[in-house]
Design brief:
The complex is a heterodimer of chains A (388) and B (602). Chain A has 388 residues and is an alpha/beta fold. Chain A is built from 15 helices and 17 strands. Chain A is globular, with a radius of gyration of 21 Å. Chain B is an alpha+beta fold.
């Protein structure tokens, strides 16, 4: 693997298809954030030991697999695991399928957990990239998001990561929270850049059904204003770009060599292993997911049964559409192929080309106006199957 | 064959929701035509839509064997009639098949506009009318008052008004006796040439057209050659039978008998409601009176959302016309909507039913344009043309005048709403108002109104302004010259013919403004700004803009859950299916009937 390629280069985007990666879902959280609809488990930290046992058992039962180029611990809050628990998971992966020498080993962390001792212990366990849930540098916005950390906690957490020697530090940011102004968002971006992160993810706050935010909005609370979110996104494009960061996907910016490899592999349609409750895998041409509830997951694994459910087998046209579907989220776009050409040739595709949303660059189809990516994605999914 | 002295043919006529179907159910049950355990509610309403909406669309006939208190066996033929003003021609044909009618009025609500309209129709048809009150079991029933109203309408004595509860069955046994005693047995000559009235028909996918017939003279015998006197066509009576209410074949039907006839004909237009059936040889010389082509009152364009479905729409309309002779359609081309059909309907309810059946039974995804009445345009050349679609209106320079259809509207309401109803009629260009009291507290009002002012939301407005107490009936009363203009709507600077409307000049600006505001709400943001303008005679009278969409992307696609995101977009995509491309603008289907919902005149 080479670090010399630009984050948004086609060569890097396509090379990721060959990478071997694994995802581990760590569901533990101190509380549920009002906007979050990921699989989380509150007040079950006492189950962490059983959880790690189960993940290790799953890893040991995994199919033969090439040594991993990237490991990603997502959540939930992976930083709630003790260093020893996280280390056990890594040890299991290291013994089989094994870790490549230059593997990118990431975990997500909440700033309030990321005290120097913990940060250092996890670095020693083998993690070399940390993704901090900074979300905002405006403490009012943090409170509205239901976060308990402060902007100052994030600054300390970044410092702790640097001292511990993490090769890559990511800051996750959320924009468009009720009450957040464009100026407040500008301040957040500037504060974030002062910390010189290697990677920044900027997510528009999305109202998901089944979340507290979803219920509040349904009951009449203000939903994020899409036009203001568009302004905020454009500001992020401007400021992060000016700071030398390269946008390589709708919501992700990196300095060269600091891209999230696991995500790149997913968008390239690569296969990946997955462990833990609600984790999604792509193995042997089949997408499947683990049981979502921690207790169900533990019960199944401890009984010696597979926690995987819901096989989705894609071939032919379905797989081709999915390839383009995933690839279009990247700045580098995707080799047009059958589905991309069909999209570009469709009536809706032509409208998207005319409006400058889509563009054909050589062999590739790219989205030029990332804020309208889903318009292109829907048009793609609406194409009539071409292989009948 | 039953001797005609033992036959009683009757209808139940009532205002909507006054309990006609429930009474029919009770009669079926009490005469033993249907065992109680097989009763379904509203037995006679067989179409799903009828059952759901609680209305009767197609008249049906059922034979009730009844042993009178005199010990004699009678055959009572109950001929059901539609209860909605849209279907008044069908009501008139059903009544023509009867000698008597039960005039049913709700003992709470009292006489309503359709009670009155139906009563006049029955009296006009020479029927013996038996007044009855329904729902006397309700606490709010006021039988004395309503009996007085009925007696006033019919010119009889309140003591002659029967009181029943169709729900509990109270009084229904006496009502059956009253029918036997008062409805005259049919008169008819069994030796005369056959004359049978087709008072309804429907299409059965296995049997073809099934006609409901009432034999007036002669004998209708299975296996004979028959002739339709309206079309002159000949066909064979492949099956003749009676409805008990299930179909029971019989060898023949004699004078006064009511039943069904199957000829193997597959197209309903070849035997029409109101037609007279006779025999091919020895045919009757004159048909029964009263045949008329059903005339559409409103027109609307129906277009497939997906242009590729045009042929399927044509086939579906053909199939629907097999059992709905009043449905008219002709191909129409719209620049905005492509190929479709201009359809004529008896009224808005009829239009809704047809559209719903096309979507439900034929799986079509349709755009319906705002309904329009048929205008008559006098050209400068002296010619007159009928215009059923605003887009067909000749240029102003070619027009001498435009005439629009008027209706005589009858409203019955408690007298406290007299002023409210008069206000409504006046804002809708009502003229020649008159009223008279039916009782101390109820008043009947009549107005001349343009049909276009009545067909859309007049009834809804009337209901809401009278807190539900007013009732409405109307009948065509000719054409009058009006000062009308066409309002055009431009989407992205291109006129969209499907949005055009012909309205009175005084209302044009308000209509245009309301229309563009409504469209701005309904049209989703697109990839570019979409200006919406209203114009009359080339002058823009209103303008709004749908701003370009700026953000259409889900923030996250990670955690490896590809399937979920794909499904989310698939669901959004389904929502977009109900959009129609007009030029380069995506327009939701409901925008095309927005004109129905705008309130420009308030």
């Amino acid at each position: 693997m080479t670090a010399a390629l630009a984050p948004d280069s086609a060569a890097l985007a396509d090379a990721a298809h060959a990478w071997s990666t694994a995802y581990v879902h760590v569901p533990f959280c101190a509380r549920v954030c009002p906007y979050c609809d990921f699989a989380v488990s509150v007040g079950s930290d006492h189950l962490a030991g059983r959880f790690v046992d189960a993940v290790v058992a799953e890893i040991e039962a995994a199919p033969a697999w090439p040594a991993l180029d990237a490991v990603y611990l997502g959540g939930g809050t992976p930083s709630r695991l003790s260093a020893e628990q996280a280390a056990r998971i890594l040890r299991a992966l290291r013994s089989r399928p094994g870790l490549a020498a230059d593997a990118q080993v990431s975990l997500e962390a909440n700033p309030e957990d990321w005290i120097p001792a913990h940060s250092a212990a996890l670095r020693s366990a083998g993690f070399n990239r940390v993704s901090l849930g900074a979300q905002s540098f405006d403490d009012d916005v943090l409170r509205r998001l239901g976060r308990v950390h402060s902007a100052e906690d994030t600054r300390r957490a970044v410092a702790a990561s640097r001292i511990a020697g993490y090769a890559s530090v990511n800051l996750d940011l959320i924009f468009g929270t009720a009450g957040e102004t464009l100026e407040s968002w500008r301040a957040t971006l500037e504060e974030a850049l002062l910390l010189q992160p290697d990677h920044v993810s900027c997510y528009a706050l999305t109202v998901e059904l089944g979340t507290r935010l979803g219920r509040e909005v349904a009951a009449g609370a203000a939903a994020p204003d899409p036009d203001l979110q568009a302004d905020m996104y454009e500001l992020a494009v401007e400021l992060l770009g000016a700071a030398g960061m390269v946008r390589y996907e709708v919501s992700n910016w990196a300095r060269p060599g600091h891209e999230c490899r696991y995500n790149l592999a997913v968008w390239a349609g690569a296969e990946y292993l997955a462990f833990g409750p609600a984790a999604h895998r792509h193995v042997g041409g089949i997408r499947s997911r683990n049981l979502r509830r921690l207790s169900d997951y533990l019960e199944e694994v401890e009984a010696g049964r597979s926690p995987a459910r819901g096989d989705e087998h894609l071939d032919g046209w379905g797989a081709e559409v999915e390839r383009v579907f995933l690839g279009l989220r990247r700045t580098a776009g995707v080799e047009a192929g059958r589905a991309g050409l069909a999209l570009a040739g469709s009536a809706e595709g032509r409208r998207l080309l005319d409006a400058g949303v889509l563009a054909v660059e050589g062999e590739r189809l790219v989205v030029r106006r990332p804020l309208l990516t889903d318009a292109a994605e829907r048009a793609l999914l609406s194409l009539p199957p071409a292989d009948r | 064959m039953t001797p005609s002295t033992r036959i009683r043919n009757f209808s139940i006529i009532a205002h909507i929701d006054h309990g006609k179907s429930t009474l029919a159910d009770r009669l079926l049950e009490m005469t033993g035509a249907i065992p109680a355990r097989e009763m379904r509610e509203q037995m006679l309403d067989s179409m799903d839509i009828e059952r759901e909406r609680g209305i009767t669309i197609k008249a049906q006939a059922v034979r009730l064997p009844y042993t009178g208190r005199d010990g004699e066996e009678y055959i009572l033929n109950l001929i059901d009639t539609p209860g909605h003003v849209d279907f008044s021609y069908e009501v008139s044909r059903s009544l023509a098949a009867c000698e008597g009618a039960l005039l049913l009025a709700d003992a709470v609500q009292g006489v309503q506009a359709q009670t009155l309209a139906n009563a006049y129709m029955a009296i006009g048809a020479g029927l013996e009318v038996i007044p009855a009150l329904n729902k006397i079991d309700l606490a709010a029933a006021d039988p004395e008052r309503v009996a007085g109203e009925l007696a006033a309408v019919l010119g009889g004595d309140p003591s002659e008004v029967r009181a029943v509860s169709a729900k509990t069955g109270e009084g229904v046994a006496d009502l059956l006796e009253e029918i036997v005693a008062r409805v005259p047995p049919p008169q008819g000559n069994p030796d005369a040439p056959l004359r049978a009235l087709v008072f309804d028909s429907y299409f059965d996918s296995y049997r073809g057209v099934v006609c409901y017939v009432r034999v007036v003279d002669g004998v209708l015998t299975a296996g004979t050659r028959l002739k339709s006197m309206a079309t002159g066509e000949n066909h064979e009576a492949s099956e003749v039978g009676v409805l008990t209410p299930s179909a029971q074949p019989v060898a023949s039907l004699g004078p006064g008998e009511v039943g069904y006839l199957i000829t193997g004909i597959k197209e309903i237009r070849r035997i029409k409601v109101g037609d007279t059936i006779t025999t091919s040889s020895g045919a009757a010389t004159s048909p029964l009176p009263g045949y008329a082509e059903p005339k559409p009152m409103v027109y609307s364009g129906l277009f497939p959302t997906d242009g590729d479905d045009f042929e399927r729409l044509r086939e579906a309309l053909e199939r629907l016309r097999l059992n709905d002779a009043s449905l008219h359609y002709e191909p129409e081309t719209s620049r905005a909507l492509g190929f479709g059909f201009r359809c004529g309907f008896l009224g808005l309810l009829h239009m809704d039913i047809v559209r719903e059946r096309l979507e439900r039974e034929y799986g079509l995804d349709l755009v319906a344009t705002a309904p329009s009445v048929a205008f008559r345009v006098n050209l400068t050349t002296g010619e007159q043309v009928e215009v059923r679609s605003p887009q067909d209106l000749p240029e102003p320079t070619a027009r001498a005048s435009i005439e629009e259809p008027y209706v005589r509207v009858m409203v019955i309401a408690p007298s406290e709403f007299l002023g409210t109803v008069m206000d409504l009629a006046q804002t809708r260009r009502g003229e020649g108002g008159s009223f008279h009291y039916l009782g101390p507290e109820r008043v009947e009002m009549t107005y001349q109104l343009p049909l276009s002012e009545v067909v859309f939301d007049f009834f809804d407005q009337l209901k809401s302004r009278s807190r539900g107490y007013a009732s409405l009936d109307y009948e065509p009363s000719g054409y009058r010259v009006s000062d009308l203009v066409r309002v055009d709507i431009l989407l992205n600077a291109i006129p969209v013919d499907a949005f055009s409307a012909i309205v009175h000049r005084d209302e044009a600006n308000a209509y245009g403004k309301a229309m563009v505001e409504k469209l701005r709400e309904l049209i989703p943001r697109q990839l570019f700004d979409v200006p919406i303008q209203a114009a009359t005679g080339g002058r823009v009278v209103a303008r709004e803009t749908v701003k370009a969409k700026r953000k259409d992307v889900l923030a996250k696609c990670y955690g490896g859950d590809i399937t979920r995101k794909k499904k989310l977009l698939e669901r959004q995509k389904e929502g977009k299916k109900r959009m129609k491309m007009v030029g380069s603008v995506e327009v939701p289907q409901e925008a095309f009937v927005a004109a129905l919902k705008i309130e420009s005149r308030k």
